[in-house]
Amino acid sequence: MDSSFTSAYDEKVRPLMDKIDQIRTLLSTSYDGITFPTVVVVGDQSSGKSTLLEALSLVELPKGSGIVTRCPLVLRLHKSLRRQVFRIHDSEKKVLLDEGQVNILNYIEEETKKLAGNNKNVVETMIELLVEDPKVRDLTVVDLPGIARNPIHNQPKNIHEQTTKLINKFIRQEGSVILCVFPANVDIATVESFTLAREVDPTGVRTIGVITKSDLAMNHETLIDQLLMEKQNALQLLLGFVAVRNRSTNENMSLEAARIREKEFFSDHPAASVVGWHCLGIEALINRL
């Protein structure tokens, strides 16, 4: 990350983020119409949302096929001198989750079952964590259930309505930035998250497209064209697109190793010499946010 950018951020933006966190503890996000800056992650099932959130937050998250996220997961990321993870309750009470004794992934799964039950429905009740770590940037990120079109197993028949209604509740807040997440091997014209985003952000002023699984792109040219947004058939967003390559659900590697592998991947990718590093990798996305 560019040192001058980091210095400017710490000097000018960080104090404002600290004030926001202080106010957030006193007021709810709906109090008198006040909204707080929030990054809302939206995408289809198995689009790479959870692995993207892992890369942003440095927290191991549940992932797999089907609906894994069944309630909103709010991650307040705070740059700090040492790593600590807290559960935030409705009363703003903080409870330390000792990672030496508590597996955060398992904890989230168990808390999800308590809130949403053992079926495959979704609920609006949130799980909220505060993540303090020297390697994160100051962000509040919300992971939402993936868009489900057809009910399977014991899912309710209106599962598509449930997921899209919950997504709309978060992305319609004007203080939110919408991350529309989709894999590189999917036709962008079929990505429903952009349809939902356009309904609340028709000019694309607070929507960022995040292309996951870049190693699965059918061809480099299509990926580069979308990142550049120069051709008429490319979707246009004011905040643009970022391509990432995170670890897959079945890869046994640390989050740090995944970041190193991502940098190596894009170093050898044709896009690096065409679009530049401001569009490539998780660090580029963090800087843009």
Please tag this protein with its features.
single chain; 289 residues; alpha/beta; 9-stranded mixed sheet; 17% strand; globular
Task: Tell me what you see in this structure.
By secondary structure, this protein is an alpha/beta fold. It is 34% helix and 17% strand. It is built from 9 helices and 9 strands. The chain has helices at 3-24, 49-57, 104-116, 159-171, 192-200, 220-228, 255-267, 271-274, 282-288, and strands spanning 38-43, 73-79, 84-88, 94-96, 127-133, 139-143, 176-183, 207-212, 241-243. It has a 9-stranded mixed beta sheet, with helices on both faces. The longest helix is centred in the first third of the chain and has 22 residues, at 3-24. It is globular. The chain starts with a helix and ends with a helix.
